[in-house]
Amino acid sequence: MVTIETPRSPRSRKHAKWEKWGWLYMRYSGVILLVLIFGHLFINLYSGEGIKAIDFAFVAGKWADPFWQVYDVSMLWLALIHGTNGMRTIVNDYTERETVRKRLNYTLWIVCGALIILGTLVCVTFDPCIDQNAVNYLPEVCKG
Ligand code: HEM
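^ thats the input. predicted complex w/ protoporphyrin IX containing FE below
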């Protein structure tokens, strides 16, 4: 018979509930990411002219359509939270000192939040049209 040892640091019931939601998030976001990531790879690298078609205009064309903005922002949020929560699990499994564990986890969520804010801003505020006035403030090397 296999006997499972009592965990080193049993946590509260409330904490166990949070862990359950984190675990469920990994499963559900994994299924949605499977569709989003392979859809993304198929559209960008395979369909139409494939990888040769990818340039500034290709990206600008996609982000002119609200469908692709929502698609890309969803992929960004789901993957970043999924990856960060997965890293949190690894940190919790491997760190020995409580202060190190907490600092690493805080850092992970701060970086995740910053990337989510920046990435979302890029997707929703992207404007492919360069300012008509740009020639006046571009560095010399870009003129002519
Ligand atoms: C194709 C889409 C993906 C699927 C189906 C998927 C599925 C999963 C599942 C089910 C788990 C939980 C494993 C467990 O608890 O034993 C997991 C863990 C994890 N995933 Fe994903 N994932 C995907 C994409 C990603 C992406 C894009 C990232 C990075 C941004 C990522 C990073 C992680 C990490 C760091 C873990 C924790 C591994 C561990 O606990 O050892 N995954 N993934």
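The chain is about 70% helix and 0% strand.
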